[in-house]
Design brief:
Blueprint (H helix, E strand, L loop, with lengths): L2 E5 L6 H9 L12 E4 L2 E5 L3 H9 L4 E3 L2 E6 L14 H9 L3 E7 L15 H32 L6 H21 L14 H10 L7 E6 L2 H6 L5 H11 L4 E5 L1 H9 L10 H11 L2 E7 L3 E8 L4 H8 L1 H5 L1 E8 H4 L8 H6 L3 E4 L9 E7 L2
The structure holds guanosine-5'-diphosphate.
Length: about 375
């Protein structure tokens, strides 16, 4: 189960966004386990028109969507990396999430105090990003010290010794990169060797996490898809956080949208916000469908068929024999009742072996040894 944390300065609309996304009317809440686990932790459904269509097509009794867990993390202030304010608690909370929503204020309004004194989203983006980089630098120093100590106790001819040397050298390169004000995520355009990935996976650096930037604007701006800061923010992202997605949204609009039960002329941004995070995390979906249930499963891009089977059940990965794969696009235009024999006779169902690379939206039936 993957997690995302909401990060930003105080008073930029983080809690309002969190409330809005947890109360969101995506899909059909009555059938879904919308659960607020704790006041600051919520599970939200990943909206999927495909799942709805498949459940209908297969006459499935139940629909089980994928979920994303979202944490509302205490606000960040300038100096958080030095432990000012709620700094340290904040940084511990965020170390454990997989992805980051960075909420930044783009809405005007004198009545809402800005802790930095004025509305200036690119300044705020820099403050938050710099704090995360500073914290990573401090953390990196501690990690490197530990590895250096270990390497001194390790025989020079061993493989471990070579690994330690590699790690130290790699940490040095990361440090140099961060001293230029850059996030780890943007190191070498986010292309990594296997050894580098192994080191990164050990340490949970804050700036190695994918980020979706949410510019929180007023209702009018959201409806018209414009904001006086938008171009400047786009330029900032391109320069200082390349590869991060930037989305325009309005916490205020979402709150109003949720409170009304009538069809709206304007669309909520929540679907896009959730789907964008999944994409940034490198996740894709596959579906299993039958009369009992239609279910959406989450895997990493690049997963092979047995790994996908392992997500359903660990045993299924070991006993995997083959997978019958149907492309969603071959099912999209059909209406119930589904004739599976027809799909087979038209060769829409393909038998895949253990080296099959899973594609987004595959509809799968696994065969396993008894
Ligand atoms: P947090 O400290 O980042 O969690 O910020 P809050 O969500 O508590 O919001 C701070 C204040 O800004 C509250 O009074 C909100 O009602 C207000 N606010 C949040 N989003 C918007 C928005 O999109 N437009 C306007 N006008 N006010 C907002």
């Amino acid at each position: 189960n993957l997690t995302a944390g909401i990060v930003g300065l105080a008073n930029v609309g983080k809690s309002t966004f969190f409330q809005a996304i947890t109360n969101s009317k995506l899909g059909n809440p009555a059938n879904y386990p919308f659960a607020t686990i704790e006041p600051a932790e919520a599970r939200v459904v990943v909206p999927s028109a495909e799942l709805d269509h498949l459940a209908n097509l297969y006459g499935s009794g139940k629909r089980i969507p994928a979920v994303l867990t979202i944490f509302d993390i205490a606000g960040l202030t300038r100096g958080a990396s030095r432990g000012d304010g709620l700094g340290n608690k904040f940084l511990n909370d965020i170390r454990h999430v997989d992805g980051i929503y960075q909420v930044v204020r783009g809405f005007d309004g004198q009545e809402i105090t800005h802790i930095e004194g004025s509305v200036d989203p690119t300044r705020d983006l820099s403050i938050v990003q710099d704090e995360l980089i500073l914290k990573d630098l401090e953390f990196l120093e501690g990690v490197r010290e530990k590895v250096e100590k270990m390497s001194k106790r390790t025989p020079r001819t061993s493989i471990e010794y070579k690994d330690h040397l590699f790690e130290i050298e790699f940490l040095n390169r990361l440090e140099e990169h961060m001293y230029e004000g850059r996030k780890i995520w943007n190191f070498k355009d986010n292309t990594w060797t296997e050894n580098e990935v192994a080191v990164l996976n050990k340490h949970n650096f804050l700036t190695a996490k994918p980020t979706v930037i949410l510019l929180n604007v007023g209702v009018q701006d959201y409806v018209h898809k414009e904001n006086r800061h938008l171009q400047e923010v786009r330029d900032w992202v391109e320069e200082y956080s390349p590869g991060s997605q930037l989305l325009l949204f309005s916490a205020e609009f979402e709150t109003i949208y949720n409170a009304q039960n009538v069809a709206q002329p304007f669309q909520s941004a929540m679907s896009e916000i959730i789907l964008e995070m999944r994409k940034s995390l490198g996740l894709i979906s596959f579906f299993t469908c039958g009369p009992l249930e239609a279910r959406q499963w989450t895997i990493r891009e690049g997963s092979l068929a047995p790994e996908a089977a392992g997500v359903i059940h660990t045993d299924l990965e070991k006993t995997f024999i083959s997978a019958d794969i149907t492309k969603y696009t071959d099912l999209a235009e059909l209406s119930p009742p589904l004739q599976e024999s027809q799909l087979k006779s038209q060769a829409k169902v393909k038998r895949a072996g253990k080296n099959y690379l899973m594609q987004d939206k595959d509809v799968v039936f696994f065969k396993a040894a008894a």
